[in-house]
Amino acid sequence: MKAGDNMPRGKSINLYLMDGNVNGRIKATLANWTGLVMKIPRIDLGKCKDRDELKQTGVYLLFGKDDQTDKNLVYVGQAGIRKNGEGILNRLSEHDRDPNRDFWNEAIAITTSNDSLGPTEISYLEHRFCKLAVEANRYTVMNGNDPTPGNPSEEKQSELEDFIDYAKVIIGTLGHKVFVPLLSSVADSDDEESVGGPEFYCSRKNVNAAGIRTAEGFVVKKGSSIVSELAPSCPEYIIKQREKFREKINSDFVLTEDILLNSPSAAGAFVCGGSVSGNVVWKTSDGVTLKEYEARKEE
């Protein structure tokens, strides 16, 4: 097999800081892709009046947080060109004035460099982006109804799926992993290198948990049993994590969804209810501790 066979190919993304700083507007393009993505802070909408790209048809995402729970929120919408000749920006401006849509502080607009998205295309893209966000389960999706997919041809669907794949790369690069599951399908195929190692287990009284290291931290898997009572010395941050993920823990103290913690020790403390060493409590199926596993990798 030649070097690079079956290996993910690199991608070249061009990021243009439209206002000269990382907190301002950013235009992103990808080599050999006609798509165009623009990240726009809500407070900078007024600066976009002369942007021809935002007068086009496209789809958009509104990002924010729940004031009470601090959960990430997203709304997926589409924007056709109105009689006034304005597309995406006009729709974003409507959301800016809507008191019932006040959660967002940043928008991402998705269109093309050649204004090639028609009504069929944007309906399909809105439907797919909304579905992908729900499936990834990182953000609470604020759409009241599931957008209809329209009726694109088989050939057009294939073309749009390629468009979506490229858009997902850029949106993730811009800081929103809204379409990225905590554990990807690559991990499910037992490709240990893609997630940092094998599955690890924590088994002790009232605890029977499984987890996987990822590039983001440590994911405790759905179906893991955790302790119901926290130790008196339980760190404050773990108490807050228990509260944060309360809706993902059923009455039997079994996780109903995968959850992400910052480190193996944080994950261990979460399931055990008190301070523990993640390098020791997490073990492979044959009893190798995480610390021993990491040491072997360096040999």
From TrEMBL:
<dbReference type="Pfam" id="PF14267">
    <property type="entry name" value="DUF4357"/>
</dbReference>
<dbReference type="InterPro" id="IPR025579">
    <property type="entry name" value="DUF4357"/>
</dbReference>
<feature type="domain" description="DUF4357">
    <location>
        <begin position="247"/>
        <end position="290"/>
    </location>
</feature>
<protein>
    <recommendedName>
        <fullName>DUF4357 domain-containing protein</fullName>
    </recommendedName>
</protein>
